Each structure stands twice: as C-alpha cells, then as structure tokens.
C-alpha cells in the first residue's frame, strides 16, 4: 500500500477527487467518510469513519473504467475553495488533507530573502508566487536570473568545493532525445553532451526531429532505435537522461496500454537500465508522463530501484508553472545518484507567467508566421469560444461527434497560464484574440524555449515535436540543481 502522495489541487466548485489510486490509500468505493475544516490552519481533512451518511461513490471514466470518487458539495466546503485559490492536496493512508498554500504578490514592497531562506519557513513548507519583473524593479536586479535569485540552498548541498570541481564539465548521454528541448536546458548549463539518439518516425516526423536536434544542439545524435544498441555502442559518461517513449503509458491510450499488459517488464525501461550500467554514469534522469510513476502500483519506479541498488533514487512530478512557465504542464522525473540520495526540491518562490507575458514582442520573430489554416467549420467553432473557453461554448450542431471534452477546441487567455498543449491542430489550440491556430513561435514560447531554437520540418512534424517537448525552464532548473549536487560525487 502507498504511504503518501502530494500535488497541487485543481480547484473545482466543490471538493472532488476521482482516481483509481484512492483505493490504495483506503478510500475504496462504499467506504464511509467524513470531513473537518480547520479555518485557523486553512485545511480540510477527509477521513475514514465506521459509519456516515457520506460514502466514497463511484464513477465511470470515458475509458469505461469504474473508479472511486469523493464528491462533497456542502456550502462550507464550497466557500473554502471559493476563498482559497492555491491549494495542495496530500493523500495518506486513511486521510486526505487539502492545505492552502500562501501566495505573496509583490507590488511596492521588498521580500526579505533571508526570512524566506529561514529554516522555520522551509519546515512550514510555505511557497510564494511572485511577479519577477516587478520584484526585479524593487531590488534593482532587472537582469538577474530567476534561478539564482530565488533558489534556496538545502542542507545536503556542498558550497565549499574546490574551483576545479566547480568548473568541471559533466559528460552526458541522452536517450530518446526528440528535437532536443530537454537537452537544450542541459547544453545551456555547459553539460558536454557526447551521445544522443532517437529513431526514425514513419508516421509524422520522419527525421525532422533529428534535423532539428542537429541544428540546435549538435551532430552527436544518432538516428537509431535504442533497442538496437549493444554495450560496445555506448560510451562512458558522468550523467544520462532518458525521455522514454510514453505512448503506451498515456492515460489517453485505450489500445495496447502498458497498464493492461500481463507483464510488468517494459522493454524500453529494461534497455535504459542496461545502458545506465554500460555507461558507468554517476547519475541519471528519467522523464515521462505522470502515469510512469503510478502505473501498476509504481512497478516501473520499483524496477529502477531494484536493478540499480547502488543508486539513491527519488521521484517527483513537476508542474512547469512552479518554475515560471506559462503552461500548466506536469511531467514525472526520476533522479538517481550513485551512492548518494539526490534532491529535487523546487524553489520556494516562482515567477508568475501568463500567456500575455509569454507572447510579448512576437512581431517579426522567427517562425511566428507558421501556423495551420483552419477549415471553414473549425473557423466557425472558433468564433463562439471566449478566452479560456473550449468546445462546450460551441453550439451543439457545430461540435465534432467524437470531440466533446473540454481539452478540445481551446482558446487561450492572455491573463492566465495556458492549459497542457498537445498537438495544436489535432486538439485545436488557438490564439486568445485571433481566430487562428497558435503559431510555431507562440507554441514554443509556451514551452519557454528561447526564440533562437528553430524547428525543421513540415508544420505537422513541428507541432508533433512541440507536443512531446520538455519545458525549457524545467530542463534548465534540473540541469542546474543536478550539476550542483553532482560536483560532490
């Protein structure tokens, strides 16, 4: 049975949780439950009881699977969520705790950074949301880097390393490299990437992702299926990253999904573990969808721990907005260090970035003029969707028969973060004020990629690359925090 999981809570007009994993924490269908609100601590706690009028109900998801659901609509609960917009949910065995996270908006006053670093604050797990441009004006650091300004040093970090170690380049291997969005973050932190690979994509990208990688990152990438590598093909290095293909792990995949397979062995995971051993690296980073950590009760994470017993291994789901990205994109990461336990703590202050801010200064920027032209029917749908709206705002007679969910036909809003961006044309993501699809550069900005990062290939191939990309700010943060810790290994 799982012990604990923690994540930001996607606010609704009531307390609502729907997931199969609730059973693993003791909240099976039919379980009597109650709740308690602590206004002083700003928490709501849901807990199991012996008898109660309230029970864990059930719901059928669009995949046809029946899962537990907790749905509490009491007026005091509605009021709690209406008045508190930034909430974290922590699920333990027999208990679910919703906690309000503190938010600080900087306008005219300066935050005392020393108080933020104070151990008491860290222990209380307070987090701060800050408009960085306004903060920079107050403290006269308009050009300072977000990471350097707000990063907190943990007890496990060593700040007295010799200069030779501080300056030493980390040799890195990259597997399942795609167009290089993740590698771009590591490259810009001075990692020496000596080896990369990805396979030829017959369906959409052909070799466009390989060409894009070579243009932006380097010629060291091989267009070769990772399953064909032998030990003699793999050079030794210090660190390895692997964005293992996630098609068979996605919750949206209802055909040939790993969760439905009889075997607990995933061939790409097994091959990645082999390459970690062959390359003799001191550390590795696995990137994937959230389900990678939870599928079949976490069997893939346990496989890394079992097969690499000399590595300290931690995992974390990171929401890109927590690091200043304009897109609410969550990805799972597994980080391992040989003979050491790594740290994946995020900064306690994060930049507030909206779509409007991300789209500033786009006129004349490279590849801003590349976007799909909507069909007449799609254009007619767009006209009915307000900023932040979706297909539910479109009259019934104009809706696509099989596209009725809220992740379809979404108009972005200048004043908020963007939703998770999938394929811009397939799922229809369009401009906040114009009736057209997002452009290549607008979409790249939502992944925080620098404007000099150029894409090579057809429009379909480019948006397929972006759909699979890792947020650049997340990649850059990981590269920095990993480098800082690896210098002591």
Description:
This protein folds into three domains: about 100 residues; about 45 residues, no CATH class; about 210 residues, Rossmann fold. It is about 25% helix and about 20% strand. The protein is built from 16 helices and 19 strands. It is globular, with a radius of gyration of 23 Å.
Quantity of strands, as a count = 19
- Largest beta sheet: strand ordering: 12-11-10-13-14-16-15
- Biggest sheet architecture: 7 strands, mixed
Overall geometry comes to globular
Q: Any guess at the CATH architecture of the largest domain?
A: 3-Layer(aba) Sandwich
Identify the CATH homologous superfamily of the largest domain.
Vaccinia Virus protein VP39
Counted by DSSP, the helix tally is: 16
- Portion of residues in beta strands equals 15-25%
The CATH topology of the largest domain: Rossmann fold
Are there runs of 5+ residues with pLDDT below 50, and where? 103-126, 139-166
Rg calc: 23 Å
Average pLDDT over all residues: 84
**Main structural class:** alpha/beta
Distance between the termini: 33 Å
- The number of distinct structural domains comes to 3
CATH hierarchy, class of the largest domain: Alpha Beta
- The portion of residues assigned to helices is 10-25%
